[in-house]
């Protein structure tokens, strides 16, 4: 799935998915207080989200997990598997549960945010996702690493290799017994790309990496894109786990 990056001064287009109308109204009010964000649609179920995404073409989808008809994990899996959908998905849930976190990442979500986050955090999450970055706090990144790096499991399988998650349920995370063996570290990473990978493994943003390396943020984005392509990693989270599994962090 390609990542949505709004061009120029175009506002970030957001689709809100939550089965509670009051919650959607609150999110809309918070997001549209930012002149650079516009809510282009709402959906109350995962099925509605899949249909609405094709109609309104959002840049970012704020997705609840527990919903009737189709849960947010399954909806995310379907959306990220659809090459015609370029939206990034940010899971916004009440439940700080590891199974939700890991399954959301495996389904292709670009971020994970709790509903008790402050308004500024919701706005920042939408902007980060729209810019093509993954939104994971350092604490969450550590949980992913601890869970998967030691087991050799991959929290973000490549497209076409994802397991199906039944509608209305959250499947258990992959066990160590079924995990695939780590791949060799690519030899074609340049010295700069390896450096960027190490900084990604510290959960640094593109802006922080740019500041650390004293280079432009656009250059960092190019390096990150090259790193992901060479690693065969779908997103930054997979690259972080890869780096830790191979002693690059």
Characteristics of this structure?
five-stranded parallel sheet; disordered N terminus; alpha/beta; 5 strands; Arc Repressor Mutant, subunit A; globular; Rossmann fold; 249 residues
How do the strands and helices of this protein lay out in sequence?
Blueprint lengths: L11 E6 L3 H12 L4 E7 L2 H11 L3 E4 L8 H10 L6 E6 L4 H10 L3 E4 L4 H12 L7 H11 L42 H10 L5 H8 L3 H15 L4 H10 L4
Parallel strand pairs: 1-2, 1-3, 3-4, 4-5
Helix pairs in contact: 2-3, 3-4, 6-10, 7-9, 8-9
Question: Could you walk me through the main structural features you see in this protein, from its secondary elements to its overall organization?
Answer:
The protein has a 5-stranded parallel β-sheet with strand order 2-1-3-4-5, with helices on both faces. Strand 4, helix 4 and strand 5 form a beta-alpha-beta unit. Mean pLDDT is 79; it is low at 1-5 and 152-182. The protein has 10 helices and 5 strands, in the order E-H-E-H-E-H-E-H-E-H-H-H-H-H-H. The chain is 44% helix and 11% strand. Helix 6 crosses helix 10 (236-245) and helix 8 (206-213) crosses helix 9 (217-231). It is globular. With 249 residues, it is an alpha/beta fold. It folds into 2 domains: 12-142, Rossmann fold (3-Layer(aba) Sandwich), CATH 3.40.50.2300; 182-249, Arc Repressor Mutant, subunit A (Orthogonal Bundle).
């Amino acid at each position: 799935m390609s990542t949505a990056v709004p061009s120029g001064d175009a506002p970030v287009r957001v689709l809100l998915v939550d089965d509670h109308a009051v919650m959607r109204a609150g999110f809309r009010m918070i997001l549209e207080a930012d002149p650079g964000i516009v809510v282009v649609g709402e959906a109350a179920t995962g099925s509605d989200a899949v249909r609405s995404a094709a109609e309104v073409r959002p840049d970012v989808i704020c997705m609840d997990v527990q919903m009737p008809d189709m849960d947010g994990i399954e909806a995310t899996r379907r959306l990220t598997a659809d090459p015609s959908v370029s939206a990034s998905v940010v899971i916004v849930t009440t439940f700080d549960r590891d199974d939700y976190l890991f399954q959301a990442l495996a389904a292709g979500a670009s971020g994970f945010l709790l509903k008790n986050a402050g308004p500024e955090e919701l706005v920042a999450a939408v902007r980060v996702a729209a810019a093509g970055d993954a939104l994971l706090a350092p604490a969450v990144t550590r949980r992913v690493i601890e869970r998967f790096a030691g087991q050799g499991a991959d929290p973000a399988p490549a497209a076409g290799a994802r397991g199906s998650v039944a509608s209305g349920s959250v499947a258990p995370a992959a066990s160590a017994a079924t995990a695939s063996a780590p791949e060799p570290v690519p030899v074609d990473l340049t010295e700069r790309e390896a450096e960027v990978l190490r900084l990604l493994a510290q959960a640094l943003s593109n802006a922080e990496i740019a500041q650390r390396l004293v280079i432009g943020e656009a250059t960092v984005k190019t390096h990150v894109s090259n790193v992901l392509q060479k690693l065969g990693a779908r997103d930054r989270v997979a690259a972080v786990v890869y780096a830790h599994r191979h002693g690059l962090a």
